Automatic annotation (TrEMBL):
Membrane topology (UniProt): Multi-pass membrane protein
Name recorded for this polypeptide: GtrA-like protein
Pfam families, per database record: GtrA_DPMS_TM
Domain of life assignment: Bacteria
Classification via InterPro entries: GtrA_CellWall_Glycosyl, GtrA_DPMS_TM
Subcellular location: Membrane
Keyword Thylakoid: no
Organism annotation: uncultured Solirubrobacteraceae bacterium
Length: 182
């Protein structure tokens, strides 16, 4: 479906006003928003499934959820929002994926900046006021050997750090050869 605003021979500065007066553009915007909302719901559902039932790490789960949501959004936007029957679907998908990957990388960068700030020293809700009353924020044991940002741990340091967690230490005592190569 071609919008009238796309074919109007109006001066460049007058095109937004013409587009805003075209009801089809508003309907298309509503469809675009509905597709975006469904993509968000799909992303959350797949992420929860990947983290819970599939027991994937949060980065892998986020990537899987992103790919499923992008596929959902591309299909709905191509066939319902924009009705883009003309044109090669592969080229359209490549452009859509490129823009989506750029947004995903931006979100990952924002998470890398924001998540360390979220892992500040733990407090209980009753004393801080920043969390819900009575909520407990988990705090990592203080004896963990966490390297500075950008530095990697050796295998021995990883084992020593893991054994500082009581559940892992108990498992290590039950299965002493579980990671004996390090």
């Amino acid at each position: 479906m071609r919008d009238e605003a796309a074919t109007v021979d109006a001066p460049l500065l007058a095109r937004p006003a013409v587009g805003l007066r075209t009801p089809a553009n508003w309907l298309q915007l509503l469809r675009f928003g509905a597709v975006g909302a469904s993509g968000y719901a799909v992303n959350l559902a797949v992420f929860a499934l990947a983290m819970g039932a599939l027991d994937l790490g949060h980065k892998t789960a986020a990537t899987v959820a992103f790919l499923v949501a992008v596929t959902n959004n591309f299909g709905w936007n191509r066939h319902w929002t924009f009705r883009a029957g003309a044109g090669h679907a592969g080229f359209q998908a490549a452009r859509f994926l490129a823009v989506s990957v750029a947004a995903f990388l931006l979100a990952l960068a924002a998470a890398a900046v924001l998540l360390p700030a979220a892992s500040a020293p733990a407090q209980t809700g009753s004393s801080a006021g920043s969390t819900a009353p009575g909520a407990t924020v988990l705090k990592a044991p203080s004896n963990l050997d966490v390297p500075p940002r950008g530095r990697r741990l050796s295998a021995r340091q990883v084992i020593r750090t893991a054994e500082a967690v009581p559940k892992i230490a108990a498992l290590r005592r039950e299965q002493p050869r579980s990671y004996s190569r390090a």
